[in-house]
Amino acid sequence: MTTVNVSDRPAHDLKADVLVLGTVTSGSGAELAPGHGLPKASAGHLETALKTLGGKGKPEEVLKVPAVPGVTAPLVVLTGLGSAADGAVDHEVLRRAAGSAVRALTGVATVGVALPTEDASSMAAVAEGAALGAYRYAGQRASRPTSGKRGRGDDREAPSTVTVVVEKGRDKAVKAAARRAAVLAEAKAYARDLVNTPPNLLYPQSFTDSVRERAAASSAKVTVTVLDEKALAKGGFGGIVGVGQGSSRPPRIVTVSWSPSRAKASLALVGKGITFDSGGLCIKPPASMLTMKSDMAGAAAVAATVFAAAELGVPVAVTGYLCLAENMPSGTAQRPGDVVTMRNGTTVEIIDTDAEGRMVLGDGLCLAAEAKPDAVVDIATLTGAQMVALGARVAGVMGNDDGFRQRVCDAAGSAGEAAWPMPLPTDLRAQLDSTVADLAHKGERWGGMLTAGLFLKEFVPEGTPWAHYDIAGPSFNEGSPWGYTPQGGTGFGVGTLLALAEGFAG
Ligand code: BES
Ligand code: MN
Ligand code: ZN
Hints:
The structure is a single chain. The protein has 2 domains: 3-165, Leucine Aminopeptidase, subunit E, domain 1 (3-Layer(aba) Sandwich), CATH 3.40.220; 189-504, Zn peptidases (Aminopeptidase). The strands form 4 sheets. It has an 8-stranded mixed beta sheet with strand order 8-9-11-10-14-18-15-16, with helices on both faces. Strands 1, 2, 3, 4, 5, 6 and 7 form a 7-stranded mixed beta sheet that branches. The chain is elongated. Helix 3 (120-133) links the parallel strand 6 (110-114) and strand 7 (161-165). Helices cover 33% and strands 21% of the residues. The protein contains 14 helices and 20 strands. It has helices at 40-53, 91-103, 120-133, 172-196, 204-217, 229-234, 238-244, 286-289, 297-311, 357-370, 384-390, 402-414, 448-457, 494-503; strands at 3-7, 18-26, 29-32, 62-66, 75-80, 110-114, 161-165, 223-227, 252-258, 266-277, 317-327, 339-341, 347-349, 375-380, 395-399, 419-421, 439-440, 466-470, 476-477, 488-489. Bound molecules: ligand BES, manganese (II) ion and zinc ion.
C-alpha cells in the first residue's frame, strides 16, 4: 500500500522520482496552475514545454516533462485541472487530477504532488486522489509478462510513497486530514481487492476469513461474529438460506462492529454480498454473468467502511452486516414458485431466482433492525434497472425518510461519489402482491430499481430512518480507467458511508 505524507518543502526541492504539477486551460492552450512556487526559470521551461506538447490543461490530460532545470525530481508530470484558473478548485477535480497523474506512472517509488490547495480539505482531496490512483490489482499471474501486453491484472509496480506539498505541512488539521485520506484510500483498496478477486477464490467462507484477518490485523478493536448456514436456518433467515442453497459453498451473515465507548450514535450498514450471481435457475446469459463476481461490492464497501471508521476512531458505533451467498443453479437450488419465510416472519413467493439480492438483504435488514440502530443504510449492486436509469457512474438513493436520503446524497457528494435521490412510489407497491404469500419478490420491468427498493422497505421497522443505495453501475468499471478510478472494482460507496458515519458524530 502507498504511504501518504505531507511536506512544506518547496515543490522544486522535493526529493522524489516524480513531481506532479497542475495545469489549467488558458486561451487555446494551457498554463501552470497557480501556487506552484517554482523558480522563474523552471516555470518558464514548463510553460514552453506546454506549448511544444500542445497542452490544453483539460481534465485527464497528463503530460511528462523530464529534466526540468531547477527541479530536483528528474521527471515532472503535468495534470489538467480544466478551467479552474481563478479561485478554488473543486475537490473532485483535484482528486481526479492527482489520480490520473499517479495512475500514469510506472516503475517509480516516490511521488511529490503540488496542486493548488488552499486548506486541509483540498489537500486531503489531493492525497486521496493520488493514493487511489496508485492502486494496482496484482491479479493471479504465475509470472510477469515480458511483452507489453497486459491482461486484467496489473503488473505495474505502484509508487510506495506519495508526498503532498502544502504550505502548512505541520498544521494539526492538515496532518489529520492526510491521515484520513490515507485510511480512506486504503479502505477503498480493500473493497476493490475483494471485488476484483475471482469468484472461484472469493466465496462466503473466504470472504469471512478475509474480514477476520483484517480485524485481527487492525490497530482498533473491530469485532466479527459469523452466522453459518446452520445458524441461519435455525434463526429463520429463509431469504439468504434460499438464495444460498443451490451452491456447494454455503451462505454466511457476518457482523462486523466498531463500537467505541461513549458513542454519539449508532449506524447499521447492510451489504449485498453475492460472491457470484449466475442468476440461479433463472440463469443469466454468459455476457451478463461475466461481471457478476462484483455482486458483493456492497458487502465489500460495508466491511471496508467499518474498518476505516475504527482506524479513525470515529465516535459513532458502526455495525456492518455482510449478507454473503453464492447464487447458483443445481439440484438443490431454489425454484421460481418456492415460498420462503424471512427472518421477521414475512413469507415471500420467489418469482425469479435472479432477484436474489433483495432476499439476502431483507434478512440482513431484519437482523440490523433488531439492534435498534439510529439509522440503517443498505448498499447493493441490486438492479440492472439502476444502470438503465442513471448509467454506470451515478448511484440511486431511495429511502423511507427524505431528510435521511438527502444526508446520504450529501455524504456521497462530499466524497466525490455521484449519487442521485430516487422515489419509492407507493403506487408501485401493488406489483409486489402475491396470491400465495405476503409478498411477491419482483415487480414489472419498468421502474425495477424502485420496486426492488419497495421490497426492501418491507423489512425496515417504521420510524427507523433507512436509505437504500443501489450501486450496480458505479461499483465496477467495465470501461477504461479515468481519474482515480481503475478498471474493475472501484470501491464506490466507502467514501459515502464513512462521511455519513462521521456526520453522526455531530
Ligand atoms: N446483480 C444483479 C443486478 C446487476 C446487474 C448488478 C448488472 C450489476 C450489473 C441482480 O441480482 C439482478 O440480477 N437483478 C435483476 C432483477 C430482476 C430479475 C428483477 C435485473 O436487474 O435484471
Ligand atoms: Mn441476480
Ligand atoms: Zn445480484
